[in-house]
Amino acid sequence: MQTLHVDLGERSYPIHIGRGLLNQPELILPHLKRKQVAIVTNTTVAPLYLEKLAQPLRDAGVKVIPIILPDGEAYKNSATLNLIYDALLENRCERSTTVIALGGGVIGDLTGYAAATYLRGVPFIQVPTTLLSQVDSSVGGKTGINHPLGKNMIGAFYQPQVVLADIDTLSTLPERELSAGLAEVIKYGLIRDEPFFAWQESNMQKLLALDTEAMSYAIYRSCENKAEVVAADERESGERALLNLGHTFGHAIENAMGYGVWLHGEAVAAGTMLAADLSRRLGWLSDDDIKRIVAIFTEARLPVHAPALGVERYLDLMGLDKKVVDGQIRLVLQQGIGKSLVSSEYDAQLLRETLAIAA
Amino acid sequence: MQTLHVDLGERSYPIHIGRGLLNQPELILPHLKRKQVAIVTNTTVAPLYLEKLAQPLRDAGVKVIPIILPDGEAYKNSATLNLIYDALLENRCERSTTVIALGGGVIGDLTGYAAATYLRGVPFIQVPTTLLSQVDSSVGGKTGINHPLGKNMIGAFYQPQVVLADIDTLSTLPERELSAGLAEVIKYGLIRDEPFFAWQESNMQKLLALDTEAMSYAIYRSCENKAEVVAADERESGERALLNLGHTFGHAIENAMGYGVWLHGEAVAAGTMLAADLSRRLGWLSDDDIKRIVAIFTEARLPVHAPALGVERYLDLMGLDKKVVDGQIRLVLQQGIGKSLVSSEYDAQLLRETLAIAA
């Protein structure tokens, strides 16, 4: 097991990465205020992993309240959030009750937001069971839900007490979701870590085969990259925006196609290609860089072509995005592999050209 | 105008107290990230004060988005919260848009919670228009909504950029609401400031008559007391719980009678009398102390008798309260006027006797 410490002053916490972590209650017990936890999970994850996590805790004398939600991005909304509140209240959970998220990004976001807002905040533990949530939602404290008018529009910054990233849970992950998680791994290389990107070029087949050593390294280094960015900018005013490479385009794609039709990582991959295309038009990325990016996404079985929504629809959907300042669309763009910047200083016509070739 | 500085490190902010503040946009302008605000208010306050606040801002070049909600505690729920989110999204409000709460405690709590959670947090300004909200919700950063199973069960700690407590707005406040606000003023004397309590005994008629000097002093000293407590304990783990004198009983009363039937301050007054009765049974308050408390509440036209709900119903309702640790009901009790403590170390039978005489 490896442990990464996310340094956020009094909100610091450890991320444990390895195999068999669900069955190690000693990683959780020191963080409990009292021996009572609510485990929030979904109908897909519950039959696979709920008892693996719950039984050792019960054996250690912890009262476990399971809260099982429907599965899917479509349920990341206020109605599902209310199911969590209702269950916590019906079980008279108090401020000393710890809420544990067991599942992927949707469960983590929903549960973290419920923990942030139930009784104005109760302790929270993350047990991410998808690669995407292990490398992305584990770090940064972003929680929230979707609104009919936009993704992640309602939420809070809220840090967990501890994160357990158990690689064993990836063995039941559908291939498509594994690839979607790799999109975020690739992102860290692209935005700030060229050596990591080069390592991925040599190790993508091992990652796809769930090789223990390679996967542990990829998760650790992804979280480390994200933690460095977040520690410097917890509330997303500056550098943290780089983590949104491909996301402004990606959110537009997810929104237009209907949440859950494209996986988040798939939309991010296609969105990253749009950002790369615009960066190339600005003269910041070479044709060779583009080839490397296309190659790695393709090897990771990710889409490199965004859907044809039309320029105006893209612009409209992007205008609702949170990364907008004074009506200008700020985008994360690249200046080579491993180097990125946030800019609204680009020729609007070039953005239209990029969007026009989508599809 | 007097200004009190609430010291919370990087979340510090000023409270301005005086007359004619709505018409002083220069108190707001320095706090705006961009010249766009959403003013959230209700159908009662809007005709009285919305334009008084909005027009000077518009004259200063600020775009004003009014959001007018139905009035009443019954609307402090997720449905009304969604009306705010919808309006912010429909107007494409961004992270640089400041949200202003113009109204009483319900508007302040709802709006503050919307500001805390919209796009994971946007800047927030409080313009409280009731005495209760001026002396209570102005300080402490508590925001939130009610749940069908309990009051203020969902929320966040979120600090404003600035608070404007304009005494002019009290001139349109119904007499009953003025008294409800005085319940919280009296509370500060009771829990930690005997000289302030004694001052109130001499000045209650001036306060009821809205004497400018007396009212400014009462608001300033109430906020000062609360700010001292909150600065020492922003997230309510210790001393801050003293601010809940009468509230555990009071919330039970509000809940049982239906939100809004008893005003919050009325329920707090009756709840404070229950806490005082239990304190007397414990030998911590003298009969003379009880007489002084009854006298000041009575002079302030507040109820001193709690409704007869029955002992079991009280205990059941109190068991859902946030101030519960490990199943024990912790209560704020008094050890003389101006001295209070939080305790679960009391004879449960004495609590039952106190509840049995309610009514």
Automatic annotation (TrEMBL), chains A, B:
<keyword id="KW-0963">Cytoplasm</keyword>
<dbReference type="InterPro" id="IPR016037">
    <property type="entry name" value="DHQ_synth_AroB"/>
</dbReference>
<feature type="binding site">
    <location>
        <position position="264"/>
    </location>
    <ligand>
        <name>Zn(2+)</name>
    </ligand>
</feature>
<dbReference type="GO" id="GO:0008652">
    <property type="term" value="P:amino acid biosynthetic process"/>
</dbReference>
<feature type="binding site">
    <location>
        <position position="184"/>
    </location>
    <ligand>
        <name>Zn(2+)</name>
    </ligand>
</feature>
<keyword id="KW-0170">Cobalt</keyword>
<dbReference type="InterPro" id="IPR030960">
    <property type="entry name" value="DHQS/DOIS_N"/>
</dbReference>
<comment type="similarity">
    <text>Belongs to the sugar phosphate cyclases superfamily. Dehydroquinate synthase family.</text>
</comment>
<feature type="binding site">
    <location>
        <position position="247"/>
    </location>
    <ligand>
        <name>Zn(2+)</name>
    </ligand>
</feature>
<feature type="binding site">
    <location>
        <begin position="71"/>
        <end position="76"/>
    </location>
    <ligand>
        <name>NAD(+)</name>
    </ligand>
</feature>
<feature type="binding site">
    <location>
        <position position="142"/>
    </location>
    <ligand>
        <name>NAD(+)</name>
    </ligand>
</feature>
<dbReference type="Pfam" id="PF01761">
    <property type="entry name" value="DHQ_synthase"/>
</dbReference>
<keyword id="KW-0057">Aromatic amino acid biosynthesis</keyword>
<keyword id="KW-0456">Lyase</keyword>
<dbReference type="GO" id="GO:0009423">
    <property type="term" value="P:chorismate biosynthetic process"/>
</dbReference>
<keyword id="KW-0479">Metal-binding</keyword>
<comment type="pathway">
    <text>Metabolic intermediate biosynthesis; chorismate biosynthesis; chorismate from D-erythrose 4-phosphate and phosphoenolpyruvate: step 2/7.</text>
</comment>
<dbReference type="GO" id="GO:0003856">
    <property type="term" value="F:3-dehydroquinate synthase activity"/>
</dbReference>
<dbReference type="GO" id="GO:0046872">
    <property type="term" value="F:metal ion binding"/>
</dbReference>
<feature type="binding site">
    <location>
        <begin position="169"/>
        <end position="172"/>
    </location>
    <ligand>
        <name>NAD(+)</name>
    </ligand>
</feature>
<keyword id="KW-0547">Nucleotide-binding</keyword>
<dbReference type="GO" id="GO:0009073">
    <property type="term" value="P:aromatic amino acid family biosynthetic process"/>
</dbReference>
<dbReference type="GO" id="GO:0000166">
    <property type="term" value="F:nucleotide binding"/>
</dbReference>
<comment type="function">
    <text>Catalyzes the conversion of 3-deoxy-D-arabino-heptulosonate 7-phosphate (DAHP) to dehydroquinate (DHQ).</text>
</comment>
<keyword id="KW-0862">Zinc</keyword>
<protein>
    <recommendedName>
        <fullName>3-dehydroquinate synthase</fullName>
        <ecNumber>4.2.3.4</ecNumber>
    </recommendedName>
</protein>
<feature type="binding site">
    <location>
        <begin position="129"/>
        <end position="130"/>
    </location>
    <ligand>
        <name>NAD(+)</name>
    </ligand>
</feature>
<feature type="domain" description="3-dehydroquinate synthase C-terminal">
    <location>
        <begin position="181"/>
        <end position="324"/>
    </location>
</feature>
<dbReference type="GO" id="GO:0005737">
    <property type="term" value="C:cytoplasm"/>
</dbReference>
<dbReference type="InterPro" id="IPR056179">
    <property type="entry name" value="DHQS_C"/>
</dbReference>
<keyword id="KW-0028">Amino-acid biosynthesis</keyword>
<feature type="binding site">
    <location>
        <position position="151"/>
    </location>
    <ligand>
        <name>NAD(+)</name>
    </ligand>
</feature>
<feature type="domain" description="3-dehydroquinate synthase N-terminal">
    <location>
        <begin position="67"/>
        <end position="179"/>
    </location>
</feature>
<dbReference type="Pfam" id="PF24621">
    <property type="entry name" value="DHQS_C"/>
</dbReference>
<feature type="binding site">
    <location>
        <begin position="105"/>
        <end position="109"/>
    </location>
    <ligand>
        <name>NAD(+)</name>
    </ligand>
</feature>
<dbReference type="InterPro" id="IPR030963">
    <property type="entry name" value="DHQ_synth_fam"/>
</dbReference>
<keyword id="KW-0520">NAD</keyword>
<dbReference type="InterPro" id="IPR050071">
    <property type="entry name" value="Dehydroquinate_synthase"/>
</dbReference>
